[in-house]
Design brief:
This protein is α/β, with parallel strands linked by helices. The protein has helices at about 25-30, 65-75, 100-105, 125-130, 145-155, 205-220, 225-230, 240-245, 250-259, and strands at about 1-10, 35-40, 55, 65, 85-95, 110-115, 120, 130-135, 190, 195. It is about 35% helix and about 20% strand.
């Protein structure tokens, strides 16, 4: 696997740069685990006005980010090649998932995150660069910088050595399409709310079972479509189905009837 290199291309680099120096992203960068850089698209627009947007063909409101400065910006990147993965932040994009982040972290190589702006980006950017349009949620923002930072963080934290405890990533939400179980720490009681007894028991098998049950329960209630996908893909074990039966989930009940 080649080293991970990520470039962010934006009209507002000042919105992205502070995030590259802090927390896990900054530590991974300082350790040399990933190369990160931010580039101003406007630097690749012709002077004197360096215009980067224009009215859309066919009419309609808003402005569209022009194809020339964007393509020039990305093609000028030192690591750009035919293997570069270009991501475009766009409200109309496919949902960005943990599996996407893991794939890019494992793949290494060069990734570009292009921040959307205005009404959108000239479609020829996507076509010429074989880019993927991605979205971090079913809502619209004024620009893609916040989304780019979210995507960047989701990738970098998975790079070996980026986090202090590598094992913690294996129980993250979405690892097997399930949401994570709840967490507790000191004090044992606060305003009448107590830490579940099982977590104080020292019985690691009971704790693991409780956490898995809570994970299944929370996923079923908060994101039922994820649980259905996990069932369809065969990600759940026999013990998981037993736990679902305890929770009253139809899949667990069906398994119980078949026995």
């Amino acid at each position: 696997m080649s080293a991970l290199s990520i470039d962010v291309c934006t009209l507002f680099p000042e919105l992205v740069k502070p995030f590259l120096d802090g927390s896990i992203i900054g530590k991974a960068r300082n350790k040399g685990l990933v190369r990160l850089s931010v580039h101003n698209i406007r630097d690749h627009a012709p002077p004197p006005h360096q215009v980067t947007d224009d009215a859309p063909y066919g009419g309609g409101g808003g402005m569209v980010l022009k194809v020339e400065p964007v393509v020039k910006c990305i093609r000028s990147l030192p690591d750009f090649s035919g293997n570069t993965q270009v991501l475009v932040t766009a409200a109309r994009g496919a949902p960005w998932k943990d599996s996407d982040a893991r794939q890019l972290a494992d793949r290494g190589g060069h990734t570009v995150i292009l921040c959307g702006r205005y009404e959108g980006i000239d479609q020829r950017v996507v076509d010429l660069l074989n880019a993927r349009e991605v979205s971090i949620g079913d809502f619209v923002m004024s620009g893609g910088e916040a989304a780019a930072v979210a995507i960047l963080d989701s990738i970098v934290r998975l790079v070996p050595g980026a986090t202090g405890d590598e094992s913690a990533r294996e129980s993250d939400s979405y690892k097997d399409l399930l949401l994570e179980h709840p967490h507790y720490t000191r004090p044992e009681e606060f305003e009448g709310k107590k830490v579940p007894e099982v977590l104080l028991s020292g019985d690691h098998a009971r704790i693991a079972r409780w956490r898995r049950r809570e994970s299944l329960d929370h996923t079923w209630r908060a994101r039922p479509e994820l649980l259905e996908e996990a069932l369809a893909k065969g990600f759940l074990s026999e013990e998981d189905l037993e736990l679902l039966a305890e929770l009253g989930h139809p899949a667990g009940k069906a398994r119980k009837r078949r026995r």
